[in-house]
């Protein structure tokens, strides 16, 4: 038996919602198994609640204080031995953040309220602290490498054998994607590659010629810097046009933005949509709303919330005015038609990378007010990315829905390292307070880029480090070689940023042996079209993309191919040499928690964790020359395949197998595999009794796990649940628990 | 003054319908002008009536006999000095042929009836004679070269300045093209390139193993031979599916075939559509219809025609059964909603190359039974070509209607020489009478290609001569060089024939200096998409295509760019060295004649003739070193530009300027240009008096030309009008006539 060394360690993240609950059941199993190979599994809490608590130590008692685990984990990514299993966490919108704060306060933590408008210095400090928790705050810290996402062969085989449902496409579908034809980020984008390192200034020059430095940026040599803006006037005109067209054509209207990831620009875009859709309401009550602190960027929920302080009669008047808008506006897609939650209620409810694949999978339709699915105009202001969805819609209209039983795969190699591209743009995004000029100026005074802007326009800059691009090109070549699959670099000749990247790609490709590889560079439309044409013929094509397209495509294609992106293998080979293994790119699934609370059934599928663990343990085995770890990984892969084959994944229905039952089967198959292998007899001997007891007690354990279902469950909190309660809820089978502890 | 030499001769064809009538007015003007340069303009009658008369000399009196002018003209194409102006002629369908026969018989010509079913030897001989007159019979004889079609700069400039109307496209349009996904010619296509010359046999092997030689073909070395078939069962299932889908989706159904050009295969395809749409009628009355000689390949008109012999009550019963079909079938597009003429009435009414551009120009809509335009499913069984229309529909849905004021141009270089490709397939197309094997066998017994076929399947073979391909590649390189425009060879890697062609293209391109040229090879979808993407950015792209795509694209793009294909310059640089100048690719326009008969107003626009004449006269001037001819051509080009600028093209409304008035203005401007030029004073002196008298008498002449409008006109026949009557109708201005004769 090997004794644990500091390198033989896997960090397993504790996050939020369903993945967190699932961990309560899975982690004890994993620990029981890995300890046999001397592999330690440590946890690291990066939940939104933990991050809030870590941000305000001065407000907490010593008992309540928690370390800044996210920062610690961030440092670990620079360690060549880092091995991190990263589960999905909440990318908190402001409403979600507020809910988490309220919950913590109710639990007795004296964390401050989120200040909607920060006036005092203290408020500003609080807001600044919270802004680091909002949106995609975890990934930029941890993702210190580029991205390698693909469907594991076992998962692909399963999807081909047991295909998920795909809505039939009508060739006469009216659905389409609509995007700005001018005035958006795409049309104004400028991009430069720095010759030398420099500290540049982002400046605003007002009408009075005063120069305001908005930000200074230290740039490396060969770093790419972009700037671009979206015209508020063009955006409003665009929304109005889309509404008019929907009204004329009798097509439902829907908005798809990414307010979580584009956490500064997209809530503003969302707010514009709210103001245009409910134009009469905001014209009539604008001043009152301002007094009340209504923020349309937070959706109509903000209106309903803030007017609660008004007298009943005035509330009703405003509600009537809101309803009057529906009379002359087109039908709007619903998030929850039963509860009357519209697309414009909360900015984080409809997230483009999840909502568009869902729409395309459902015959290009979304849910209407009457609970029926209907053709819809999918409004996505940024033309840069929206075009790929229109291309796919046209493709499905022409060729019918994709067929999971025959279609090929589109794995992704994504540029993500060193906060590449739009992930790093939050602190470089500004809403213009007046007309003027935004410019980027070198330290010697040279103006690198500039735009004439108007009040309300959204301007943003975005950085991409050369080393990240170089590593990305290398990863693309490696993946293309290892998987013997053609790869397409998605770089659009009409986009300023992509023209800069293309020069780098062409240069860095020369550093590799590309003989016999099929590597091409294409614009987005042609890239997705080519990939889809190959896909319906059963052929695979690696998409090599920037950061945003990485995010969008690793939902889009997996949802078509596998029915979910949660089954994708998502690896971040870190620049420093370590590895991060992400699980369940499909989000943290609030609906799942609701079902647990109501009927103690967790439908969360931990397949992503199984797959990530196998790769993580294997990598650890290779690095430490730990043969038992390698065997453990191999057995886990086989167990996962068996679990899929035997359909032991969680069901959505209460009373049937859920997440916990699925974990039991994993443990049983894993133990059986280890017991059956002959390469390491000690290992086999160690797991034989467990395999035997789990196999023999299958019926009993499943019965114990089923017995608890059907009644409400108490986990002591949503954002900050009680660990003991979670343990009790997630580990209800005494037979299973004692079998594991006997190991 | 040069005296006419045998080389100084232009052949001007006399054809049918509106172009023939227009010639009655234009030719005297042209002759008056060209005679000044010693250029003779001879006529050659290739109307369908003339071709019928030439086919049956033994039935006619000596007075009535006419020479076989088409054959004579065919021989002339082999003369390096040939210079032929070819006007549009009727590609007669069987109903049109029968009407022409009836008219000739009424005029006292004893030509035989067309035998629907030829039983006796005599009938077979008659049918064989007539089969040479049917469909596209003229072009294969005359087009002894490849095709060079483009928008003349003056015409393009005019379209940009005075854009034609374009229907707005809704992004939610339900319109689409639909085509077979299997079982059609595309999916079964096989193709071989002959190593050596050989005489091959097309054979049918029946169930009894008997071998029937359907045809022998002499093939040259390096000639490409294709074979393919369309499954009748798959075709019927396809039609049924499209009808069901339209019914479900509430979208109108329309059929677009090319029964004229694909004169053997497409009427059969059309017949299948008729039988499927009116399934119950044909199931119930099939036997009766057979007795009556109903042929669904001739459309529902054939049913209505044949049942006239039945008792009134039985006619009504059948008509009721037909109407009952409309109850459960989707709405069908109408050719004439007022008269109740449906899409399935006559196979030649809806011709894909004209109907699809018209639909795309009209917001993707066609006329419904209620006289309103509606979204429609455009059914085009052959997937080979239908895909380009779907690609354009998707493009317009996404990007809106094309904008004639800014769009670029897509000129065409078409493979057409030596009856290349599908034009030559009529005598190699067979409808299977029983199940068996169709095969192509070399003289040594080697089977080159074979297909398992079933009763009713349509099998065809198609030839492409190597010399034609070689000349086509040369023409593409020449045009790309001369116009400094990128050229795309439309060759689909998934099509067997195109793969053979591609090998040749790659080889023959090496024979030319292509340095600095942008020449690419793409599949159809990518070719049209790339061309459209360039087009909306104002860029031109030469399409280098096979024969069918030549035919389709030279309507499709011109109708978007110029509102009509009649304004295209259409040149056939013949292999032997001569030139043919085609005018008005837009067809012969039966509606125009109807208007002349009803209100003596001819809306036909002779612009195509003006443009062709200018190129024809210029070419003659160059070949004969005839400076005056060159000046005449130059002046004609300028006059045409002026005519367009001053909007002196024919109006569609009675009482306004018509074809004759437009000719007057051409004559006036042409004379003015010649009088004003200073390069040849003799020529100037000769035309000065004419310029003066036409300019001074403009009002009077226009008044004389207008005076005759508004009443019916008599031209003594439709297919075979009376020349004297046509002359009287088309030349009503005494003042103009005497001014011309004074020249």
TrEMBL record, chains A, B:
Its EC number is 1.1.1.42. Mg(2+) binds at residues 353, 551, 555. NADP(+) binds at residues 86-91, 139, 587-588, 592, 603-605, 652. Its cofactor is Mg(2+); Mn(2+). Keywords: Glyoxylate bypass, Magnesium, Metal-binding, NADP, Oxidoreductase, Tricarboxylic acid cycle. One of its GO terms (molecular function) is metal ion binding. SUPFAM superfamilies: Isocitrate/Isopropylmalate dehydrogenase-like. Binds 1 Mg(2+) or Mn(2+) ion per subunit. D-threo-isocitrate binds at residues 149, 550. The keyword Metal-binding applies. It catalyses: D-threo-isocitrate + NADP(+) = 2-oxoglutarate + CO2 + NADPH. One of its GO terms (biological process) is glyoxylate cycle. Substrate binds at residues 136-143. Belongs to the monomeric-type IDH family. This is Isocitrate dehydrogenase [NADP]. It comes from Oceanospirillum multiglobuliferum.
């Amino acid at each position: 038996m090997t004794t644990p060394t500091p390198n033989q360690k896997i960090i397993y993240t504790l996050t939020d919602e369903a993945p967190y609950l699932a961990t309560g059941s899975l982690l004890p199993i994993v620990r029981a198994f890995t300890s046999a190979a001397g592999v330690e599994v440590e946890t690291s809490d990066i939940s939104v609640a933990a991050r809030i608590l870590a941000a305000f130590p001065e407000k907490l008692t010593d008992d309540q204080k928690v370390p800044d685990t996210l920062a610690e984990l961030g440092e670990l990514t620079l360690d060549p031995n880092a091995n991190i299993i990263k589960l999905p966490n909440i990318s908190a919108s402001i409403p979600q953040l507020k809910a988490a704060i309220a919950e913590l306060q109710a639990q007795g933590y004296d964390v401050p309220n989120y200040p909607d408008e920060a006036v005092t210095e203290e408020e500003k400090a609080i807001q600044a602290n919270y802004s680091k928790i909002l949106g995609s705050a975890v990934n930029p810290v941890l993702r210190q490498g580029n991205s390698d996402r693909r469907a594991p062969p076992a998962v692909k085989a399963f999807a081909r054998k047991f295909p998920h449902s795909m809505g039939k496409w009508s060739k006469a579908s009216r659905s389409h994607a609509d995007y700005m034809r001018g005035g958006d980020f795409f049309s104004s984008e400028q991009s430069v590659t720095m010759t030398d390192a420099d500290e540049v200034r982002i400046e605003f020059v007002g009408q009075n010629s005063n120069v305001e430095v908005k930000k200074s940026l230290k740039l490396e040599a060969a770093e790419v810097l972009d700037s671009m803006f979206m015209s508020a006037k063009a955006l409003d005109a665009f929304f109005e046009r889309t509404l008019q067209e929907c009204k004329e054509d009798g097509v439902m209207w829907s908005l798809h933005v990414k307010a979580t990831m584009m956490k500064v620009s997209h809530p503003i875009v969302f707010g514009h949509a709210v103001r245009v859709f409910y134009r009469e309401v905001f014209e009539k009550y604008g001043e009152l709303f301002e007094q009340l602190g209504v923020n349309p960027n937070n959706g109509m929920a903000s209106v309903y919330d803030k007017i609660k302080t008004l007298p009943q009669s005035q509330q009703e008047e405003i509600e009537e005015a809101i309803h009057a808008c529906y009379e002359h506006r087109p039908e709007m897609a619903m998030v929850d038609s039963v509860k009357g939650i519209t697309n414009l209620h909360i900015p984080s409810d409809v997230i483009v990378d999840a909502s568009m694949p869902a729409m395309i999978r459902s015959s290009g339709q979304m849910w209407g007010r009457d609970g029926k699915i209907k053709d819809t105009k999918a409004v996505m202001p940024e033309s840069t990315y929206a075009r790929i969805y229109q291309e796919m819609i046209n493709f499905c209209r022409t060729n019918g829905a994709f067929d999971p039983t025959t279609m090929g795969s589109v794995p992704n190699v994504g540029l993500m390292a060193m906060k590449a591209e739009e992930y790093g743009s939050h602190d470089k995004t500004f809403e213009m307070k007046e007309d003027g000029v935004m410019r980027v100026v070198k330290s010697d005074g040279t103006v690198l880029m500039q735009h004439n802007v108007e009040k309300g326009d959204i301007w943003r800059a975005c950085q991409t480090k050369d080393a990240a691009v170089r590593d990305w090109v290398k990863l693309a070549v490696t993946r293309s070689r290892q998987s013997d699959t053609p790869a397409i670099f998605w770089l659009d000749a009409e986009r300023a940023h992509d023209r800069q990247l293309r020069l780098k790609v062409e240069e860095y490709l020369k550093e590799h042996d590309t003989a016999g590889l099929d590597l091409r560079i294409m614009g987005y439309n042609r890239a997705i079209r080519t990939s889809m044409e190959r896909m319906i013929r059963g052929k695979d094509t690696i998409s090599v993309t920037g950061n945003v397209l990485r995010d969008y495509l690793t939902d889009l294609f997996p949802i078509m191919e596998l029915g979910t992106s949660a089954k994708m293998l998502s690896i971040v080979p870190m620049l420093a040499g370590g590895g991060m293994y992400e699980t369940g790119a499909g989000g943290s699934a609030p609906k799942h928690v609701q079902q647990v609370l109501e009927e103690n059934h967790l439908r969360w599928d931990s397949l992503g964790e199984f797959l990530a663990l196998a790769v993580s343990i294997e990598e650890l085995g290779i690095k430490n020359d730990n043969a038992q770890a390698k065997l453990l990984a191999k057995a886990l892969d086989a167990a996962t395949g068996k679990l899929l084959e035997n359909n032991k994944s969680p069901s959505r229905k209460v009373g049937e197998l859920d997440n916990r039952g699925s974990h039991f089967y994993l443990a049983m198959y894993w133990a059986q595999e280890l017991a059956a292998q002959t390469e390491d007899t000690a290992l086999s001997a160690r797991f034989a009794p467990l395999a035997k007891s789990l196999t023999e007690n299958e019926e009993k354990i499943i019965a114990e796990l089923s017995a608890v279902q059907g009644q409400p469950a108490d986990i002591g909190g949503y954002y900050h649940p009680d660990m003991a309660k979670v343990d009790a809820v997630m580990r209800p089978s005494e037979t299973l628990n004692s079998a594991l502890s006997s190991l």
